Amino acid sequence: MRPFKLISMGLIFLLFSHSTMAQSNLVFNSVKFITLTCVSNGCSLDTTIVIPAGKTWKIESAAGEGGKLKLNGMIIHYSSSGPYHFPIWLPEGIYQFRAESNSSFDIPKLSFSLLEFNITP
Q: Which of 8, 19, 29, 104 has its CA 20 to 30 A from that of 1?
């Protein structure tokens, strides 16, 4: 029984020490909540977001009603279906977010929440 306990403890230690080394260069910076709201029925709203050098975003979730939220043309939230796969990691760069109405009668109000990290050497 004793060798099994030692082996188990060793495996647990290796598992945790490996997982902590995997993201040792990320330092938490802030929490962000971004909302995209159209002002009329059937509209679309495009927003360009720049993630600066030395930063990365982890989109945790998206929610809303009346439309779909796209990231560089890919749907990441659709108010009438889901769930979608989160988290979504975004490295530094330029990204196009689009809130798009489901129909000519809808006014989309869509949002997403994320964590911002500083990348350290």
A: 19
What average pLDDT does this structure show over 25-53? 92
CB 52 within 8 A of CB 94: no
* pLDDT tens-digit map of 48-68: 999 999 999 999 999 988 889
Q: Check if the beta carbon of residue 31 is closer than 8 Å to that of residue 72.
A: no
The DSSP result for 54-108, as a single string, is: TEEEEEEEEEEESEEEEETTEEEEETTS------EEE-SEEEEEEEEESSTT---
Q: In the chain, what are the domain boundaries?
A: 26-119
